[in-house]
Amino acid sequence: MNGADRKATGTSDLAARTLTAVVMVVVAGFALCLGGWSWNLFVMLAAFGVLREWIALVRGFVASAPARGLWNAVGVVYIGFATAMLAFLRTDIFGAAAVLSVVGAVIATDVGAYFAGRVIGGPKIAPRISPSKTWAGLAGGMIGATIVLVGTRGETPLWHAVLGGILLAAVAQAGDFFESWMKRRAGVKDSGALLPGHGGLFDRLDGLLAVLFVGGLLFVLPAILKYD
After folding, report:
1. Taking Cα atoms as reference points, which of 160, 191, 161, 187 lies closest to residue 175?
2. Are the C-beta atoms of residues 88 and 94 closer than 8 Å to each other?
């Protein structure tokens, strides 16, 4: 492939990534604004899509049927609980602002980690699983998440928002590593091909799922019990 071909391919990939990102933001934003059954349907479809990719990845590295069944059962619990928490965040108990805060913090984690990793570099966290992830990137992700949570904290104490940003970024990165580990075991680059230029749904939601799952266990379930 000559230089012109590589440049054209890169431009095409960027255009596909940009268009896909715009469509995702518009669809998700529309569903979030509507709330109710529209948001719940959107979350259900996302959960179904991620679960399909999970099952496909498991098929790629688990040989026995009983083991695959166990892995898939774990996937149902993990993905189901996390996406149920995403749906629950849009209810009147929390509201759209809570969804935007959590999702924004996860996005800020990815952005902060990317730029800090590129600019600072340094030692890798787990090069065999994800060669591009560095400790500097993790720190950048923590800073990004903290900025978002501090900016959207409302009446929440400042130190809660700071601690929350640090923990959220760590959990999001752990979710990213977990999905990368599954892909490496399965011998694939992406979890799917549903999103042109981005891979699969699991590729885009790995960190968010981990944050929602852990956050649900630590914070949301006690809130639900108290509310009841």
Report:
1. 191
2. yes
